[in-house]
Amino acid sequence: MHLLTGSRHKSIAEKLNKLITSLNGVFNWQVWPFTVAILAPALMITNQAGHSDWWYFVVLLLQLTLFISPVLVFKNFTGKQNSKLNSKLNIQLNKKLTILCWCLVFLGYPLLVLILENNLPELAALPFIQLETFVFIWIIEASLLFNKWLQSRQKKPLRFKFTLDHGLFALTLIFSLFWAAVFAPLNDPIIESGHNMVIDLKLVIFHWDNFLIYWAQIQLTYSIIFAYYYINRHILVNKVMARYGIFNYLWFTALFILFSYPLAAQLVLWLPLNSGEHTMIISENQNPFDWQNGSFALAVMLTSLPVILALEWAQKSQQLAEMEKQNIHTELLLLQQQINPHFLFNTLNNLYSLCLTKSEKAPELVQQLASLLRFVVYKGGQKTVPLSEEVQYLRDYLDLQQVRVSNKCQFEVDFEEESADSETNINITPLLLIILIENAFKHGVEPSLEDAWLKVKLSRQGNTLKFYCGNSVESNYKPSQLGIGLENLQRRLALIYEDKYSLKINHEQHAFHVHLTLECQ
């Protein structure tokens, strides 16, 4: 019974997948967002009319679909999903023709409808002939174009970086467009705007010449305010304050305000918008030397100063952090490059001797050496590796060394089975433990003229890894002969594990012991 039920569910899922696949091939995903421009106006009109009849709503949906059909047809033929259909109908729109059609559909068609609405009363009586419908269409098309731009940016490196300067200038554009839309239908915008701050899109479109004229003047006014911020940040703060200190910054700022504010006020007063008694400058008169204009310039400088200082501090902190991170990464790479250079030549010499004597151990030794080099090349540059791979690397290294010095060194190696069973759940920085073993050979086993010994033990408890390496040393051994091996290890531990490790080094008369404890991931 369960098997039958499972197979039935599987067949239903396969049918649904086939249905979705077929819809993907037929349905144009550039068209479906415009259903919002059908449903949303239909619901708004139905609510405004107070209708509760479903038939009225369905008829309205059909009318709206027919009304925006030029948009639907255009998006259907230019959508990527219907490229096969386009080839069948031999419709190939080049780039220029596509742009022309886009302008006709999204700009020309709405303008034509609005003109006909004002000249044909019977057309204006239709409930779905509203500017709000085109607003929905424009918003949807803008979002689709923005999404297309984002997808293209993912394929190419994004050179443009959004900054505070861009954000503030974008705000000046938004505010200037807002006030231009408010001013466009008004006879005396400066006086009437205080009592009427409503934006009527229909009136804005029919007074588009006033809208553009007002926008240019208001944008120029806001650009002058933006210029005060820009000069304050990039010249007064970054140049004067950074080089000559706060005292000179204050004097230069005062001098700049006193010199510039009458000129800036006069430039704004020359705009046609300020030809009347009331003006757009802060003093609201025709006097560019009014102290209120200077106080406004000072307020802009003082208000922007803490924002500028906070931003500059954050940017410099980020740059320092990135530089420090890059330096640490570079230093780690340099430290890893110091690993294993000295034993490689000895191993190759030993291989040469084995090959001359045609020893059976030569192929196995070549394979182990290849495994070591493969780990160093492909795994050594990674941030972490599984503990199992690091342990295997240590085994191969010890096997190679045992072939070389087995005649004078006694090995005692213990990699606990517990750690081998659970090592897949723990990662470790590569080529870290090998430093202790290399150091033991370099300063203990290889220089010894007598019998030597080496003990290596690795155990694990949860995420805590314990590693011990001990070796014999000659009586004339001095700690200053450690070389860069342990210094390399200590530096890497400090950079990578910070306070998550413990390293204990004990030097006796004839022995050297190192205990390392790590908290791994």
From the structure provided, what is the oligomeric state, counting identical versus distinct chains?
A: single chain
Overall CATH class of the largest domain: Alpha Beta
Radius of gyration: 39 Å
Helix proportion of residues, in percent? 55-70%
Mean pLDDT: 77
Strand order of the largest sheet: 2-4-5-7-6
Could you tell me the strand content as a percent range? 5-15%
> At the fourth CATH level, what is the homologous superfamily of the largest domain?
Histidine kinase-like ATPase, C-terminal domain
User: Can you tell me the CATH architecture of the largest domain?
Assistant: 2-Layer Sandwich
Structural class: alpha+beta
Largest sheet report: 5 strands, mixed
Task: List low-confidence stretches.
Answer: 1-10, 20-26, 81-92, 418-423
SSE series: HHHHHHHHHHHHHHHHEHEHEHEEHEE
The count of strands amounts to: 7
Cα end-to-end separation: 45 Å
Keywords:
two-stranded antiparallel sheet, alpha+beta, Heat Shock Protein 90, 521 residues, 20 helices, five-stranded mixed sheet
Task: Furnish the topology, listing elements before pairings.
Layout lengths: L1 H25 L9 H14 L4 H14 L1 H10 L4 H6 L6 H25 L1 H4 L6 H25 L8 H20 L5 H4 L8 H6 L1 H37 L1 H24 L21 H47 L3 H16 L4 H18 L6 E2 H19 L3 E7 L1 H6 L4 E2 L5 H12 L6 E10 L2 E9 L12 H12 L4 E7 L3 E9 L2
Parallel strand pairs: 2-4
Antiparallel strand pairs: 1-3, 4-5, 5-7, 6-7
Helix pairs in contact: 2-3, 2-8, 4-6, 9-12, 12-13, 12-14, 13-14, 15-16, 16-17, 17-19, 19-20
